[in-house]
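Here is an idea for our session: we take a single protein and study its fold together. Which protein we use is up to you, so please pick one and set it down. Once you have written the record down, we can walk along the chain together:
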Amino acid sequence: MSEENIEIPASPEQVWAAITTDSGAWSFQVDIDGDTARFHREPFAPDATATVTAWEPPHRFAYEDPTFATEILVTARDQGSCVVRVVSSLRVEGEGWDDIAEQASKGWAMTLQVLRCYTTHFAGMPSARIDLIRPVDRHADIAGNLPVDGVIEHRGPAFTLLRTTDPCPGMFAISCFSMDAATLSVNVTGRLYGPDAEASVATERSRWHDWLTRI
């Protein structure tokens, strides 16, 4: 079992809206239909379906798929903030599954940073997505010469979160995960915000695609 948590300067209701109704504005689009949750994960992974096991707005959302049982808990704090906690339990055992659980834990740590940036700066704004993935040599220079400038919201060994203002407000999560001993998967999860987001997304997608090609 793994657990990740983060404090967010927003109310539980605002965070609940981001996790459910507005999920596609910052991460994977999640569609809830009764006791079924559908996660639209392309291009990073195939779409997936899970069974909803708890739905208690705005404090608790839990679901299970064949591999993981996941629980998202939102607890109010003073002065309008809240703590978001994600508990993820592996439902299978055997060789190799520990590595998958470790990658999932890293993924949730990244996701919570993106959630905090979204709810702090962009919640409720019109959005457009830029999602790209590319396998690269493990020794590629991934950090240098990003195609945009901005404020670094978070930097870790395998994940950087950048908040931008030009050509419109946006955020870009750049992450790296091992595919095998020689190859990394470099992922760009980008969102542009505001009335000019859709008009800007084609140009910005081309810039990020060119950057991935160069590395």
